């Protein structure tokens, strides 16, 4: 297999011609062509090595030989649907179950986090007979239509967003920027009470709540870590209303948080969701995912009378790959590594917070870490442009990092789990250098009425950096008849 | 890799414990454990070989070495998301485009037929600004919630089915059993007029139609082949209403129909859908799929302001596999084989129709063939029990075939494309023997109020065969507090 078929310019040209323009590349003014990857490193067509701090999908490391071998050997033998008995399917279900509280014992294998979350909703609708869903602000749960409806992260992007009447958006339990902060005496109760208020309001309108859904730690929403006890209190309210608790582990599961295998377990032993959804890291890049629930919910779903069949879900190749991922996590103690290296990375970033006023908050569990940048530590003015500046400059240093959250000002670390202390040293050292440099060179913001032609001029400049207050996204879209890439939101020139 | 880990009884036990009970196996009273497969043959744990007449997913043959090699080599090199440039993605898009009419030039790569059809709806909703969807009776378009809504094949299974007010069900253009049959002077116009009537009724209610969606040939719906010209006329009506035409090629694409690469092309050169969705055969079992549309639709979707990102969709491994599938189809002239062997199979089945009154209709294109069984050629009484009897007896002869359609009385041939004339001889010869035997041994139907205990007695008998008039499905479900497997609908004893 040739790693490169076309020169980069031709690849870009064909992509423009044949790939949906809504599908954005990283660093769109100068995208990266990656031809191979190993562990936590990716290589471009010229052999330049990039340190990968963002790919939580390549969970046990890019192209891990044990995973590749398991997939290749099973492909050679058999890849068929789950209407036939196969040991990989049941063995994998058994292995996954062993990582979970006992009552979460029934699995449905599907192909993506989106399929998993959609099925979770179907299970909840069927079990409860209710319709409404409570979701967190800034949440992202997937790209199929039912999930766009419960993903404020997505539907807020729409010019003509119309929120479904059966979807209720609860406060994000963000202790740094949210309504109830670290200085609040009991933020867990306060945020859970907000969910309860939504339930009451729904009841007043004659609606009934089928489910509360949340990522165990909010990822796209800004690396938010809910206060311990919050999920228990929410579950009480939701259960009282006859609804279910869905924990979305698509981004954060499989040992990433270090102390536990699942991020919902951070809330305490006394918390067990009714449904858990898994995705991204589950197959180290292979398209697969899973929904796990209780026997009661599964039986209710069956009793609807509708069979569930998923053509690819639970095929022997996907299961072989899933098993190999579990083996590698265990064999290489990657959960332990996440705890150790994640802790080390967090400490390094805390030092940056002490050194640079721009670094407002460091929060993380294991190798899921966020660094929120602010221009003012009291007003918490989001340092969106500066976050984008760092991302772009790190790219020039061959380090891949991203910024996310509603203000795109949270540096988001979620690297392959084989990330090392040396890697952490390298990325934080570069951030330190950039932050020092940035502070010496003041930013000049372009006016709000930036035009298409100035965009064109700027696009050519490698020193272009990106700035935005999230609300200006729409302005740009309206003026230029095209939406902005999240990475590229709007442009700022350094003077 | 060990092909068998557990004894079969343990596999069944673990499956009952850990796999969602809505996920049914084939032949549930005595399911098959398959451990390897090659070409059109599958092998159980004892090395018994089964001829596969049903797996349209293993399109170029089970475990095809060229596909396995392409997947394994790319897995070793790189598997990452499409935010990075990669040549496999653009080369694959270019190759797919070359099989389609020129205006279908923009691809979105996703992970399953369900993800593809859901995205097709999102494209149509966004492009038209309308909401309503027209679907065909008995249609199946996928398992995510938005598609259950437009799949009568699924929502008719629900005890408490509630049809969405924005979904309209058009007559299935079935020339054998439908409202307008082969003796109708112009069934294409008559069926298209039905769609137009639905559009008018929707308009009267103030609704607007976003899309008409149909499989190019209805598969689960009963191997229905719409009359040529029908799609053109429907497209005229739908376009006039501002809607789009979505051709679902998930089951029938990639050369299966023999004369053309895509089944919608059977309608004539003058027909081009606005959106085409692909799935099952696209990756020979690897979870992948694709939506292709026009530049206009793609730009409208982009202008909504919402980015589209699919974690696994279009990854280099999926694209390498997709490219290998296209290569094998071409290199081994599988489209030509489908035309030749499909024609041969159809002729053999036509002879069965002449010989056995039970065989009411033979219809097919290439290796997509249906044989509809009826007890009465005038009344067209569905021979559901007999169809199930054949399926079960073929299984005992180590031949895998299925029955589908709203009455589960259509024998459905959709084998891997390497199916041979010898394979066709073998399956038809066995069917001939079974039909002859069946006719000599009259069936005694169990009464409608079959009880759970009689079910238990019968379940132990290997001679048990399955019977149902589709309407009795619900009766069983109500009496036994459990839904029936489609394969196992209800039981009949041969005397």
TrEMBL record, chains A, B:
GO MF assignments: ethanolamine-phosphate phospho-lyase activity; pyridoxal phosphate binding; transaminase activity
Q: Which domain of life is it from?
A: Eukaryota
Which PROSITE patterns does the UniProt entry name for this protein? Answer: AA_TRANSFER_CLASS_3
Q: Where located?
A: Mitochondrion
GO cellular component terms, semicolon-separated: mitochondrion
Query: Subunit details for this protein?
Result: Homotetramer.
Q: Give the catalysed reaction(s), semicolon-separated.
A: phosphoethanolamine + H2O = acetaldehyde + NH4(+) + phosphate
Q: Which organism is it from?
A: Salmo trutta (Brown trout)
State the protein's name.
Ethanolamine-phosphate phospho-lyase
What family is it from? Answer: Belongs to the class-III pyridoxal-phosphate-dependent aminotransferase family.
Please give the Pfam families that the UniProt record associates with this protein.
Aminotran_3
What EC number(s) does its UniProt record assign? 4.2.3.2
List the SUPFAM superfamilies.
PLP-dependent transferases
Chief subcellular location: mitochondrion
PANTHER family to which the protein is assigned, alphabetical: ETHANOLAMINE-PHOSPHATE PHOSPHO-LYASE, PTHR45688
Keywords in alphabetical order:
Lyase, Mitochondrion, Pyridoxal phosphate
Q: What does this protein do?
A: Catalyzes the pyridoxal-phosphate-dependent breakdown of phosphoethanolamine, converting it to ammonia, inorganic phosphate and acetaldehyde.
KW Lyase (keyword) present: yes
The cofactors named for this UniProt entry are:
pyridoxal 5'-phosphate
